[in-house]
Write a structure and sequence with these properties.
The protein is elongated. The longest helix has 48 residues, at 152-199. Among the domains are: 1-131 and 448-518, Rossmann fold; 177-338, no CATH class. By secondary structure, it is α/β, with parallel strands linked by helices. The protein has helices spanning 35-45, 76-81, 113-123, 138-149, 152-199, 205-217, 219-234, 240-254, 259-288, 293-313, 318-336, 338-384, 424-427, 430-447, 464-477, 490-493, 520-532, 538-549, and strands at 2-10, 13-18, 24-29, 62-69, 89-96, 102-106, 109-111, 124-128, 391-402, 405-414, 422-423, 452-456, 483-486, 498-505, 512-517. A 6-stranded antiparallel beta sheet has the order 2-1-4-5-6-7, covered by helices on one side.
Length: 550
């Protein structure tokens, strides 16, 4: 429910705060005092389009903010889906600066307008006599019947079955598409796979072959260079090794004089050992060098084959060719097992189709049982609200199962005697539609948890006993759900748990709208004015007291 509403710098409102009760709140005031402006600010908070023309002071930003207790709304999943921190006391806020830039927040987290609308629609339901879209919507009508039928478990079971059916259907259809492609490619896949398997490639083969070929092709030059290196490092005359040995001997003779000299000797000894090791390896490598024309030809042929494979398959390396081989192997395996896979997928789809049809029938039966009592109850309520010849029916057709079941529903309505019911959106006037919608929400209030319901002058065209009946219905709904009713009827105003009065203040240079909570005496006076005009008589005051006491 709405705990506190704050509006700043919007239209005729400079600063307004309202703390409604948890039950029935009524708002009254003269025409043009600002009641509809409040609704505009609430709509802004819920994600409606922003306009800089709404700024009361163009140099300051507009803020609309609502604090809500959402502990009974079961919105944890929605908050998780939208990546929001769930708080039982949630704050939603909308800001518009002087440049027209809009920002929205939920619990101080910036959100998109789409997220704001999703969450806001679960917190506030604004109902006016012009609200026709929702009730004329087939999905809403289906949800209405389901709520009345209290078939949440049956509906939940159907939804799970529908998801399983769609999974099986998608899997089967995907396999059919893939199988056609695989069968067309089967011969080519087999040929390419066999070729790659026979190639017997290994990861680093290309680099090793290329290195071997370079050595054979440059064998003479390599052998010459090794001979020159060996001569300089370990030749019969002056060589690096002989000079190193002479140096080692001289350093060894003085090593005992200082730890530093000893360390230098040890380092030189390490250098000698490393040099001997290098000489051994060079001698070994030099002995391997041999120009082998036959081996060179074999290497060229193998590398040429590898290059051809890479060019053919548009691969840059052997690892890419091996990856392609694995992919072709997977396709080949899938093609080999295609008939079995298709048969299994077909059986799974047939099984899920049967289960879906059974669940759809069960869901249809639950809806069918609810339709007549629901129609009767709505019809009776609409009659009580001043449409004595009202006829309401729900056309029910069985259709192919879909996400919401196998039912097509449409509310049919007639307000006049002797006139057959037709689709509600085509025949109901604004006032009639509003009363039907109110009756629907009255019934829903008994079956489900509703958000804060704002009723915008749905009592137009209503008076006398019907107004009293409408007030009683609001009062009954408000036992379980918070209602804010903007009204011009004293019969309804008198039913409020809290009575707010909207008025204009022209004492400043610019007109300002204010709202205040009326005390008991003020409330009697305001309702008396609604009955008897600006200067109510004693009788009007007495009637006001009587309405409130009722």
């Amino acid at each position: 429910m709405l705990i506190r509403l704050t509006i700043k710098n919007y239209a005729l409102i400079n600063h307004l705060e309202m703390e409604p009760s948890a039950s029935l709140n009524v708002i009254t005031g003269e025409t043009g005092a600002g009641k509809s402006i409040m609704l505009g600010a609430v709509g802004l908070m819920l994600g409606n389009r922003a306009d800089t023309k709404v700024l009361w002071n163009e140099s300051e930003k507009c803020i609309t903010e609502g604090v809500f207790d959402i502990s009974s709304y079961h919105l944890n999943e929605l908050f998780e889906t939208e990546n929001l921190d769930y708080e039982e006391q949630t704050v939603i806020r909308r800001e518009i600066n002087s440049a027209g830039k809009s920002r929205a927040f939920i619990n101080d987290t910036p959100v998109t307008l789409d997220t704001l609308r999703k969450v806001g629609s679960k917190l506030v339901d604004v109902h006016s006599q012009h609200e026709t879209l929702e009730l004329g919507n087939r999905l809403f009508q289906l949800q209405l019947v389901d709520t009345y039928a209290s078939n949440q478990k049956i509906k939940g079971d159907y939804t799970m079955t529908w998801k399983e059916f769609m999974r099986s259907k998608t899997e089967f259809e995907t396999l059919i598409t893939e199988s056609a492609v695989l069968r067309q490619e089967a011969e080519l896949v087999t040929f390419q796979l066999d070729e790659l398997i026979r190639a017997n490639l290994s990861d680093h083969e290309q680099e090793e072959l290329e290195s071997q070929l370079k050595i054979i092709e440059h064998a003479e030059d390599i052998k010459l260079r090794f001979s020159e290196i060996l001569g300089r490092l370990h030749g019969p005359d002056v060589s690096v090794r002989s000079m190193l040995a002479e140096t080692r001997g001289k350093l060894n003779s003085i090593a005992g004089y200082s730890a530093a000299y000893t360390q230098l000797f040890q380092r030189l000894e390490s250098l000698r050992i490393e040099l001997d090791d290098i000489l051994n390896e060079i001698e070994q490598e030099e002995s391997k060098i041999e120009f082998d024309p036959r081996r060179a030809e074999e290497l060229k042929e193998r590398l040429s084959f590898i290059y051809q494979l890479q060019q053919k398959h548009r691969c840059r390396s052997i690892p890419e060719l091996l990856q392609l081989q694995n992919s072709l192997q997977a396709k080949s395996d899938k093609t080999s097992n295609l008939d079995e896979a298709l048969a299994a997928a077909r059986l799974a789809l047939e099984r899920s189709t049967r289960e879906l049809q059974e669940k759809a029938k069960e869901l249809s039966r639950s809806r069918e049982k609810a339709i007549n009592p629901l129609c009767h109850q709505i019809s009776q309520l609409v009659k009580d609200l001043g449409i004595p010849n009202a006829q309401l029916a729900i056309e029910h057709q069985i259709v192919s199962p879909g996400p919401t079941g196998g039912d097509s529903l449409e509310i049919m309505f007639s307000a006049n005697k002797g006139v057959a019911p037709r689709p509600l959106g085509q025949v109901a006037s604004g006032g009639e539609f509003s009363r039907v919608m109110f009756s629907v929400k009255y019934i829903l209030a008994e079956k489900a948890s509703l958000p804060t319901l704002i009723l915008d002058e749905i009592d137009n065209g209503v008076s006398g006993e019907i107004a009293l009946q409408l007030g009683k219905m609001m009062q009954k709904m408000a036992r379980r759900h918070q209602i804010i009713a903007i009204t011009h009827l004293p019969q309804i105003a008198a039913k409020g748990d809290r009575h707010f009065y909207v008025y204009k203040d022209n004492s400043m240079e610019k007109t300002v709208s204010h709202i205040r909570l009326l005390e008991d005496r003020e409330r009697i006076s305001e309702i008396a004015k609604m009955i008897g005009g600006a200067t109510p008589s004693a009788l009007a005051l007495e009637n006001a007291r009587e309405l409130i006491e009722r």
